[in-house]
Design brief:
heterodimer, A: 9 helices, globular, B: about 270 residues, 10 strands
Chain lengths: ~260, ~270
């Protein structure tokens, strides 16, 4: 009898979790659909969009740049060390370029921006929720989805690909610095090897991933902030959930997109 | 007729028709039935104050009227028309609201907060004119033009309330809601805000609904009083009748007694 109860309790907990997951997925899909549908319906808030482009794009540049520079440098060393085991050390320029552009640039850039931006969006909108600023927007005949969410999501879609493109260049430059100063590559040959092996598909893959990641990380920040619980604890939880869910979704989307471009 | 700022012409109501009417409005959150059939009427130009203990659904009532919270059942009529019968933006344009904590937008300066509706209307008022109108409203609530370029974080609690008040009246709305207008203020500042609310409502000719625990606010601001308890309107009447009312719940509440039919710990 006790065993039966335990089994039922176990199954019930699985069922409850599944229902909660499905409900959360549904809420997120409705939220995303609502946010995207705002694009087709004026009024628009260009000043807000400009402010978010500055906040999400320009102010994330140092983080993305430093991440890309050190990743490119470390990658060059790893490929050199690994390649030397089977006399393939000379592939450093091409592997660094392909590795950075196709994978590490968008993924690490996306994760770093998610850490910086998703959390700040969730904290800002969550605080607005707790202090009734979102209710105030509604009473002032302004749709919070249009005024708060759409500019941030659009800014993510525009700024993150630009950030990733710059990060890709800086990452390759990091590999170049190590290759030419530490590993003894000729500067001209390094650049030629890099350019010869990169294809338009590599760049398209990088920018498509960046667009997707920009959408995900801003949407997660907005969603968790918008549905923030009460008080400091609610805002804190919203911030954490935004970063965690954005990071996981970025990694999952990266796999799906890599399969698509494979 | 919509022009800059989409201002509404004032008295468009039919005589004898309530400006706001709630009919058997119900709302529950999970198992907690907050509103269990709330009904009342507010006539044009009248000031209703809703009183009641914490958690009795005063704020929920206001938010249901505004559509911020969706009611489960019941009807809300504005000038005799159901609240969901027209364009939502046009519906909301009739309202101004002062929130309990001010709810000023941190990222905007004081004048931008006050002029928010003017600047974000379908036909936005030009920046210079909006600023001038915001400064005029700030002056009306006792704040000088030097406050216009400050940010909410630089203001005291009392000043934030005044800015919130200026924002609520910025477009001379037909209906103004005040949510705990004197909460967190010292008695002198509370008196100043109460007098301002009474003056402004009379001056604009607006219909006002105020929710408060503060009996001084009730006596200064109210034409009529509604007491919420147990999800219903427990008592409703003119302010002059409040002190003579025999309802034990109202009596306990207005005299602040710890003992009586309302449990002190809820």
């Amino acid at each position: 009898m006790i065993l039966l109860r335990l089994v039922v309790a176990f199954l019930a907990s699985i069922g409850r979790s599944t229902l909660q997951l499905l409900a959360a997925t549904g809420r997120l899909a409705i939220f995303a659909g609502n946010a995207v549908s705002q694009i087709a319906r004026p009024p628009y808030y260009p000043v807000e969009l400009g402010r978010q482009l500055l906040s999400i794009g320009y102010f994330s540049l140092p983080v993305v740049g430093m991440t890309a520079l050190f990743t490119g440098a470390a990658l060059a060393l790893q490929i050199w060390a690994g390649g030397a085991r089977f006399n393939a050390g000379t592939v450093v320029p091409s592997i660094v370029a392909i590795g950075i552009v196709r994978e590490l640039g968008p993924v690490l850039g996306g994760l770093m921006v998610a850490g910086r931006v998703s959390s700040s969006i969730a904290a800002e909108i969550g605080t607005m929720r707790v202090t009734e600023q979102i209710d105030a927007l509604t009473t002032l005949s302004t749709d919070p989805m249009k005024y708060l969410v759409l500019p941030r999501v659009l800014a993510g879609l525009i700024a993150v690909p630009v950030l990733v493109a710059i990060g890709d260049v800086i990452g390759i430059f990091g590999g170049y610095l190590i290759g030419t100063h530490r590993l003894g590559f000729n500067s001209g040959a390094y650049i030629k090897n890099t350019l010869d092996f990169l294809t338009a598909t590599d760049i398209a893959s990088s920018l498509t991933k960046a667009c997707a990641f920009g959408f995900i990380l801003t949407l997660m920040g907005c969603y968790h902030g918008y549905h923030s619980g009460r008080g400091a604890q609610g805002v804190g939880a919203a911030t954490t959930n935004a970063v965690v869910s954005a990071s996981i979704l970025i990694l999952a989307a990266n796999y799906v997109l890599t399969e698509a471009f494979f | 007729m919509a022009g800059p700022g989409d201002l509404l012409p004032h008295d468009t109501s039919t005589p004898g028709v309530p400006r706001i009417e709630l009919r058997d409005v119900k709302k529950r959150f999970g198992r907690n039935r907050v509103l269990d059939g709330v009904s009342f009427r507010v006539m044009p130009g009248e000031s209703l104050v809703i009183i009641g203990g914490s958690g009795t659904g005063k704020s929920v009532t206001l938010k249901c009227i505004l559509g911020i919270i969706r009611r489960d059942a019941g009807q809300i009529l504005l000038d005799g028309q159901p609240d969901d019968s027209g364009d939502r933006r046009t519906f909301l344009k009739q309202f101004g609201m002062l929130f309990q904590g001010g709810a000023l937008f941190d990222s905007l300066s004081v004048w931008q907060n006050v002029a928010f509706r003017l600047r974000h209307a379908r036909h936005p008022v030009p920046r210079k004119e909006a600023r001038e109108r915001a400064i005029e409203k700030l002056r009306r609530v006792g704040l000088g033009p030097e406050t216009a370029d400050l940010y909410p974080a630089e203001l005291s609690g009392g000043m934030q309330k005044r800015v919130g008040l200026a924002r609520a009246i910025a477009t001379d709305p037909r209906i103004i809601f005040f949510d705990e207008p004197t909460a967190g203020l010292d008695p002198i500042m509370a008196g100043v805000i109460n007098d301002l609310i009474r003056e402004l409502v009379t001056e604009i000719g607006a219909t006002a609904v105020t929710i408060t625990h503060d009996m001084t606010t009730v006596r200064t601001v109210a034409d009529h009083v509604a007491m919420l308890h147990g999800g219903k309107v427990r008592w409703f009447g003119p302010i002059e009748d409040m002190d003579d009312a025999t309802d034990p719940y109202l009596d306990q509440f207005i005299h602040g007694r710890a003992t009586g039919p309302i449990a002190a710990i809820r």
